[in-house]
Amino acid sequence: SSFEETLHRSLQETFSSISFLEFDSILEVLMDRKKRIHMIGGEFTDSVARYLYFHLRKMRPNVYMIEGVSTSKMDHLLDFSKKDALIVFDVRRYDQDIVEFTARAAKKVSSVILVTDQWHSPASQYASYVLSSRVTSMSRWDSLVGMTAMIEALMSAYADRCWPDIRERLEKLELINADVHKSLMNQST
After folding, report:
1. Which among 42, 26, 45, 1 has a CA at the least distance from the CA of 144?
2. Residue 162 above 90 pLDDT?
3. Which of 6, 25, 38, 55 could be joined to 155 by an S-S link, Cβ 3.0–4.6 Å?
4. What is the pTM of this model?
């Protein structure tokens, strides 16, 4: 029960620390469909970056996950422009490759959104917006529960604001999935 209490406290502290102005500004960036949204995560935060990617990819076009070894990640810097926004995930034991990538990307993209812990990644100096979550845990590892919950709140707010466009997109996706399923069924018979 003390483990649960620690996580509960982390969630409360995460949500009480969110600036609603910052949150709304981030939503405005995400709602700009002319922008390409890229995300990148560190060793532990890559899973939360992917979680955001899967949500956003269903809801809007031009969403990309930057992955691979650090040298191939740097390739993405070639194509960044002011049409792009970058979402960076980084928590303590901060990933120097992520910090360096962010520093270089910040010179090219329209905005950098950093999702980090309460101590703030060194990448925060290059960020336009910062969302911080509490990572305190009773385990030997930091917890990403607060960060994941914050991303879920962001996606819920995004869906509420953009529902007509999202609904149309999801309906088209369902038609594609039904067509693919029908095609696969025909091939197996």
Report:
1. 45
2. yes
3. 55
4. 0.94
